[in-house]
Amino acid sequence: MSATSHPLTRTAQVVGFFLKYRSSGVFTGLDWDQATDEDIPIPEEGKPADFVRDLEALGPTFIKIGQALSTRPDMVPPTYLAALERMQDEVTAVDAATIEAVIETELGVRLHAVFPEFDPNPLGCASLGQVHRAVLRDGREVAVKVQRPNVAQEIRNDLDTLQMLASTADHNTQVGRRLHFSDWVQEFRKALLDELDYRLEADHLERFGHHLAKYPTLMVPQPLRDLCGARVLTMQLVKGCKVTEPLGLRRTEHNLRPIVIDLLRGYLDQMFVHGELHADPHPGNLLLTPDHRLAIFDLGMVAHIPPKLRGRLLKLVFAAVDGRGESVADELIALGVRLEDFDEGRFVREVGQHIARYAAHSHAQAWSEGRLLLHLSRLSALCGLRTPPEFNLLAKTLLNLETVCVALDPDLSVKAAVEDHLQKLLRDRLLQSLSPSNLATEAIDLQSLLQEAPRKVGNVLSLLAENRLQVRITGWQDSALMENLQKIANRIAAGIVIAALLISSTMLLRSGIGPFLFGYPAFALVLFLIAAGLGLTMVVSALRNDKKPGPREERGTRS
């Protein structure tokens, strides 16, 4: 789609896409037959492959939507997930003159004044931008990532359209009330707009480089801040081969296991220590360098996990790896949102059985940790529990990491490596909670509680003794109950008015007082028509506006 397409035309294209796949199973919920599929075939033909091709044809926003949907096993059936996972973020390259204009506008200098050598042929092209090799005046080779022109405005227009459609679906469909498409679009909007600002990606590169510095086999190309802008990112050029390329000879000549161990530990640290989750660590974003290190780049999509959620996710993953099904169910319930149809008994039973099967078959690749978490997300959706998006991102990240680990070292037990480092992280968290600063903070809170408790207890006893204790319920005037009571009162009043009009018209009909219209007293006929109109209006209003309540949602409190 061109950036100049008319908004109504674009909306029609998007609506047409959703109507085409309205009966495909995407977004309409899962069934129990799909809950524990272990080996999902990658479709070559049929609706899943067509769905992906149509997404790609709609442009950058929808390519990113496809990538985001591949992390939502609670929304998308497994066959579609398999098709989305191999979605290609490849587009036609922008011409060199346009790229040069973007660089000069963003940096405020002539291209060749900064880069004496600039390869007009990109190293790679994606939906948002493309990367070119360049050489600085001091001879250093760099990679210059340049955003495609007009893509930001195009994406904002698409996001506005999606927000409108999502709100409509949430208000008018059962699946919308269950899955809350508007919330998902809001999260997606924030992540995608952040990805459009290359200055944020430069921040991510610096932080990841700092956090992973203690792992010598990992490296993150660092940005050149003076040559970065919102639409241009200049960083160290990394040369190497993709981890998915044949590595038989290299495995024979060099032991790659230290790289794999460092990769797992580094990413687990990022998730559970630093609270940052690289949302897209697929093999294409990792290069094996000639000096036998693993380069990590393309950090545009990074999710931030708050400390409390971070701790719960750590406990959940450790319980899953350790084979404790009931603990996993407890943590998921505490993390998720329970819908009205949540079946807690069935959920705990299904999770326990699934964890037990995982523990019995954990040596098989089909029962990897990433796949386990994806299946837990499906089970949660089927039982009426909505898991937080961070949980789904964590599952997808682990699955991608496992793919890389298997490519580099097929003989490594990923489960053992993950469990070993999770134990270390839990020990570190325990020691941190016992640190002098944390203990001092807790002591101050306890001191405040002890000082305030006698006075507060005394106040409550005084109010009770004087019979002045009051309980206030806030939000009553704005509550749904008050709204419904007002609606009932209005309809009762309207019904009384209609009945009075009907009775009055009947009495006037019997009086025979003129003037007459069609042989009937005109005033009586007018009152009857008014009453009939009001009654019909009230019936239509009830049929149109009285809908079934949305699913009742409740934050999990099980512990």
3D architecture notes:
Strands 1, 2, 3, 4 and 6 form a five-stranded antiparallel β-sheet that branches. A four-stranded mixed β-sheet has the order 5-10-9-7. Strands 13-12-16 form a three-stranded antiparallel β-sheet. The chain has 559 residues and is an alpha+beta fold. A hairpin with a 5-residue loop joins strand 9 and strand 10. It folds into five domains: 1-89, no CATH class; 92-125 and 128-237, no CATH class; 242-434, no CATH class; 438-469; 480-554. Helix 1 (7-20) crosses helix 7, helix 2 (47-57) packs across helix 3 and helix 2 crosses helix 4 (78-85). It is globular and about 110 Å long. It is built from 21 helices and 16 strands.
Q: What is the residue-averaged pLDDT? A: 81
Report the biggest beta sheet as strand number plus sense, adding barrel if it closes: 5 strands, antiparallel
* Rg (C-alpha, Å): 31 Å
Strand content: 5-15%
Uncertain runs are: 30-45
Structure class:
alpha+beta
Molecular shape: globular
Number of E-state strands: 16
Q: Work out the helix count.
A: 21
Give the domain tally.
5
Distance between the first and last residues' Cα: 50 Å
Residues in helices, as a percent range: 55-70%
Jot down its keywords:
559 residues; alpha+beta; 5-stranded antiparallel sheet; 21 helices; 9% strand; globular
